[in-house]
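Follow-up to my earlier ticket, as requested here are the two runs.
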Amino acid sequence: MSDDRRKIIMKEIYYWKENNLLPEKYCNFLLALYSQGDSLGSVESVSGNKRRLFLLLVNVLLLPLAFLTIYFTELQMIMQIAILILFCGLSGVLHLYMRKTVGLRLNFSLEITLLLIFITSVQLVQLWFSTSILIYGITFVNCIFWIWIGKKLNRNYLFYSGIIGIFILVYIVIN
C-alpha cells in the first residue's frame, strides 16, 4: 500500500477517533495496523490536542477576566453583568464541548462554569436588591446547587465545596 493512501486512511481513523464514531480501542488497533509500528500516528493528532489545549486555556482565562471586569473597569453595572453572562454562556458551551470530546475526565471547565455562575448571580443580586440577606440567600442556593451537581456527577470535591460553603455562610451570618 502506498504511503499517501495509508496517510489518508490514518487521517480518517483519527477523525473517527476524535468524533467518537468508533470506539477508541478499535481506532487504536486500526492505527497500529496501518502505521505498522511507525510514529506517523502521533503527528496527525497534535492539531486536535492543540485545539483542545487552546479551548481549555480560553476557559481558564474567563475566570480572571470576570474579576477584571468587575473590579478594574469603570463600566456600568449592567454592562458588567452582560459581560459576565456572556462569559457564563461561553464557559458552559466550552464545558459541553470538552465533555463531548475529552470526556468527563476534565473537571476544570465544570468548576470554572460554576464559579462564573456564582459570581454572576451575586452581582445580579447586588445590582437589583443590594441587601446582604439576599446575597447570603443566593450564595446558599449556589452551594446547594454545587452539592446537587457533586452528588449527581459523583464529584466529591464539588459536594464538599458546597458543604464547606454552607458552613462558612452560617458562620458569617451568626457573627
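Run two:
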Amino acid sequence: MAYVDDMLLPGETVSYRARISAIIYLPGICWCAVGMLAAKFLPTWGFHFGGFYQLKRLIGFSGAFHLDEVNNAIALVCFIIGAVLVIRGMVQALSTELAITNQRVLAKFGITNIVTTELDRRKIAGVIIEQSINGRMFNYGNINLRGYMGNISPHLPISKPFDFQKAVNERIRPLSFENK
C-alpha cells in the first residue's frame, strides 16, 4: 500500500488496513470453469439442434463447417471472458487502498484515473455497511464512511466490513470522551 504509506504525516500510524474481498474473482472463475467444461464436454455432446446448419444455409455459407471448431470457439470465448474478469479483479484489488490511521481515514481507488479521499477522525459521522445474504455467509460487504464534509464509498466488496467499522469506532470514541 504505497499511497497510504507515502501520505502518512509525522507521528501518524496505520491502525487498520481494509482489503477487497476475494469474491470479486468469482465471476471470472465461473466463466473460466464454464470454458473448461465446454472444452471437455461440448465436443462429445455436439450440437444436435441443427441451429448452426440452418444459419449456414441462411447466410449462404458454402465452406466446410465443423462442429468441433464451433465447440472449441465457444470454450475459448468463455475462458477468455473469465481470464479478463479475473485480471480486472486483480487490478481492482491491487489498486484499492483503504486504511485507518490514528488521525484520519485514507482511501485510494484506481491506477490510471486515481481517486483519493481522506477524512479527519474528528469529521467522521459513522459507517454504513451494506451486506447481502452472500456477504453475510462469506464475510464481505460494501461500506460507506459518512463524514460531515464528505463520504468515502468504494463500491467494492470489502472483506470483514464489521472489523473496519469497529476500527473506525475505536478511533472516534476517544474523541467523545476527550471533549467532556
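The only thing I checked on run two: Confidence is low (pLDDT under 50) at residues 45-52. Let me know what else you need.
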